[in-house]
Design a protein that fits this description.
The chain is an all-alpha fold and 183 residues long. It has nine helices and no strands.
């Protein structure tokens, strides 16, 4: 394994713990307002809804999925995460926070995608290449909340809700919420 592959694999593997560190910095630096919270939460909600839609079609590590949002995006869970991150950047009310989130997502999601694609090519070979070339494999499936649960998307929903609640608390606690609302 090359040094690059080791770094990519490490970033992909440790993106969640790195995300907690990034979240702490985001919370510390954020200066949310009612307007930034409302706009950002709306954008982040779109990202989480895309993630839920994708999770409802995915049988992770067992097959190549081509139904639902996988028809349009090779990695809809990551696209949803990027939209969710953009929303939280907006909600934070500060450009440096949005840039930190963007940097974290660019690095970790790129690593995760490279690692995941290597796995999918190794395990599913031609089937994955056919999906990437044509955008479909052979089956259509309906959305399933059972798959959403099996893919543990409830953890992302809880993280999203916690992030918005913490930003709302910070907006209220530091007084900017009430100053902005009074204007």
């Amino acid at each position: 394994m090359s040094a690059t592959e080791i770094v990519v694999d490490s970033l992909a593997r440790f993106r969640v713990p790195l995300g907690f560190l990034c979240a702490a910095a985001v919370f510390w630096m954020a200066e949310p307002t009612p307007a930034s919270l409302t706009a950002g939460a709306a954008v982040a909600c779109v990202g989480e809804l895309l993630r839920i839609w994708a999770a409802g079609h995915l049988n992770k590590s067992r097959e190549v999925t081509s139904s639902g949002p996988y028809r349009w995006f090779a990695h809809p869970l990551y696209v949803g995460s990027a939209i969710l991150g953009a929303g939280l950047g907006i909600a934070s009310g500060r450009v440096p926070v949005a840039l930190l989130i963007a940097a974290y997502l660019a690095v970790t999601l790129t690593a995760a995608i490279r690692s995941e694609e290597a796995f999918l090519r190794r395990v599913f070979r031609d089937r994955y290449d056919r999906y990437r070339d044509a955008g479909w494999v052979d089956e259509e499936r309906r959305f399933s909340f059972a798959r959403v649960r099996a893919n543990r998307e409830y953890r992302a929903v809880a993280g999203f809700a916690l992030a918005v609640l913490l930003l709302a608390w910070k907006a209220t606690y530091n007084g900017s919420f009430w100053r902005s609302a009074a204007r």
